[in-house]
């Protein structure tokens, strides 16, 4: 039996609920709501009816062991995977986006996200800025913000620097919804501070975020917890 | 309306520029295509021509050989248009950023320019090495353009279809066979007309029409199918 609990988060058989802490954002109309999301890979059932709800300025923290479906859930929310069943509604500026718009609007960060190794960090960001119709000036500003050199080829970046580039890429088009899969992986202490600052600014400007991690972590503005059991 | 078209074209141009910039730095496709084409060309020139090919045979056999060389050289590089994006995990970032039709068009134009570069290398060398007389050079140029475009358009679409599958090389060959066969039958037949100094039985325009129609159909099919193939 899978039902959506009013208020904070839906309850499903494999989801653990925790109380929420309220946060305030400037645009309360933005929201994410997903109900009874199911996804199988062949015979393997990864998501068996996951539901949740998130409003402007809030974080949902998704935890669970390896293989529990955290990344699959985030890919479904980003419309990179189509769920076998269930509905996902992302509302921005009072408009509910379809899967196509949702894919192009979300800010997505994942460990398996890669960039063109033969291009520099700035060339990579400029390319995606042109695709996302973001101002090119933002590329240099973001690289400076995440502490990356403009002229280093992506293939020559360390794992921590690649994670910084993923953050810059995810923030490039000023998304309302951030989907962050293990967002602080490979960071040194300044890197993690920088990423936490970016996340805090995003939330304080009314953005939403779903953060996936193997275990709980201290994050600002967490409104709901979702524990997936694989 | 114009703003939307302008944005769409900017995306297409960005994909094209990125692909060429990456290619000029890695030279993967350029080297593969050029090496394959030149090796095959030299082998054929030593094997069958011009000494081994009579003037009567030249018009019948050499157009077939020319298009076989171009086909196999192209299939050494073009199937990787989308496969490479999947292998290097850059496809996810592309899916989250690019309008599918603009992405397809950018990749298509990149493939076309790559084929044109290949043809610019192979065709003059082939004509020189095989001492192939060309009765209608402008027809041959038109055929290389229309044929190269059709080959690139079909290969781009098939590359997108196979990119997320296993056994990509085999799958490309299986899918390419029925799609490219009509194109090559048309091209070989028309190239004979371009090479041989024989009177035309039908106007050139009527002979070229099926080839141009093929290019149009493959392009439209690509635009229609690509979003479904590319997105989940």
**What oligomeric assembly is this protein in?**
heterodimer
**Order of strands in the sheet with most strands of chain A:** 1-10-4-9-8-7
Percent of residues in β-strands of chain A? 25-35%
What is the CA–CA distance across the termini of chain A? 17 Å
What is the helical fraction of chain A, as a range of percent? 25-40%
What Rg of chain A is obtained from the alpha carbons, in whole angstroms? Answer: 17 Å
Instruction: Give the number of helices of chain A.
Output: 6
Distance between the termini of chain B: 28 Å
Secondary-structure map with pairings?
The complex is a heterodimer of chains A (230) and B (232).
Chain A (H helix, E strand, L loop, with lengths): L14 E3 L13 E11 L2 E12 L3 E6 L5 H8 L7 E8 L2 E3 L1 H7 L1 E3 L11 H11 L5 H10 L12 H13 L5 E5 L7 H16 L3 E6 L8 E7 L2
Parallel strand pairs in A: 4-9, 4-10, 7-8, 8-9
Antiparallel strand pairs in A: 1-10, 2-3, 2-5, 5-6
Chain B lengths: L1 H25 L1 H20 L7 H21 L4 H8 L3 H5 L4 H30 L7 H26 L5 H28 L8 H27 L2
Q: Your description of this structure?
A:
- The complex is a heterodimer of chains A (230) and B (232).
- Chain A is of the alpha/beta class.
- Chain A is built from six helices and ten strands; from the N terminus they run E-E-E-E-H-E-E-H-E-H-H-H-E-H-E-E.
- Chain A has two domains: 162 residues, Rossmann fold, CATH 3.40.50.300; 62 residues, Orthogonal Bundle (Helicase, Ruva Protein, domain 3).
- Chain A has a six-stranded mixed sheet with strand order 1-10-4-9-8-7, sandwiched between helices.
- Chain A is globular and about 45 Å long.
- Chain B is an all-alpha fold.
- Chain B has one domain.
- Chain B is globular, with a radius of gyration of 19 Å.
- The chains are: A alpha/beta (230), B mainly alpha (232).
- Chains A and B meet through helix 2 and helix 3 of A and helix 1 and helix 5 of B.
């Amino acid at each position: 039996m899978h039902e959506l609990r009013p208020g904070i988060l839906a309850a499903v058989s494999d989801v653990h609920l925790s109380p929420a802490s309220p946060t305030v954002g400037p645009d309360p109309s933005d929201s994410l709501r997903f109900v009874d999301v199911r996804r199988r890979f062949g015979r393997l059932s990864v998501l068996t009816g996951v539901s949740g709800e998130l409003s402007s300025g809030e974080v949902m923290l998704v935890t669970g062991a390896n293989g529990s479906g955290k990344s699959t859930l985030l890919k479904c929310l980003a419309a990179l995977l189509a769920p076998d069943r269930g509905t996902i509604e992302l509302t921005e500026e009072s408009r509910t986006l379809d899967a196509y718009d949702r894919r192009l609007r979300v800010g997505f960060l994942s460990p398996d996200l890669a960039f063109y190794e033969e291009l520099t960090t700035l060339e990579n960001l400029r390319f995606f800025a042109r695709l996302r119709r973001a101002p090119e000036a933002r590329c240099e500003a973001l690289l400076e913000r995440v502490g990356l050199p403009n002229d280093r080829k992506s293939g020559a970046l360390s794992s921590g620097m690649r994670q910084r580039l993923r953050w810059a890429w995810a923030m490039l088009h000023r998304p309302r919804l951030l989907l962050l899969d293990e967002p602080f992986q490979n960071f040194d202490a300044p890197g993690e501070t920088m990423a936490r600052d970016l996340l805090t600014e995003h939330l304080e400007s009314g953005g939403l975020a779903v953060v996936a991690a193997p275990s709980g972590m201290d994050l600002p503005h967490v409104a709901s917890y979702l524990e997936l059991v694989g | 309306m114009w703003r939307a078209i302008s944005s769409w074209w900017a995306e297409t141009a960005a994909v094209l520029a990125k692909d060429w910039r990456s290619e000029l730095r890695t030279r993967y496709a350029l080297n593969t295509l050029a090496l394959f084409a030149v090796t095959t060309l030299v082998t054929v020139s030593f094997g069958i021509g011009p000494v081994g090919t009579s003037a009567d045979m030249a018009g019948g056999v050499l157009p077939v050989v020319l298009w076989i060389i171009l086909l196999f050289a192209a299939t050494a590089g073009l199937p990787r248009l989308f496969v490479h994006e999947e292998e290097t995990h850059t496809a996810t970032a592309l899916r989250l950023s690019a309008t599918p039709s603009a992405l397809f068009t950018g990749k298509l134009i990149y493939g076309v320019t790559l084929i044109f570069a290949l043809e610019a290398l192979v065709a003059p060398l082939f004509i020189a090495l095989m001492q192939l007389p060309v009765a209608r050079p402008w027809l041959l140029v038109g055929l290389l353009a229309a044929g190269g475009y059709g080959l690139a358009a079909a290969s781009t679409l098939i590359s997108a279809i196979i990119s997320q599958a296993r056994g990509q090389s085999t799958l490309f060959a299986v899918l390419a066979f029925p799609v490219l066969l009509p194109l090559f039958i048309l091209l070989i037949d028309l190239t004979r007309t371009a090479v041989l100094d024989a009177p035309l039985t039908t106007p050139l325009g009527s002979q070229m029409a099926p080839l141009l129609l093929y290019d149009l159909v493959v392009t439209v099919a690509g635009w229609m199918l690509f979003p479904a193939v590319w997105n989940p």
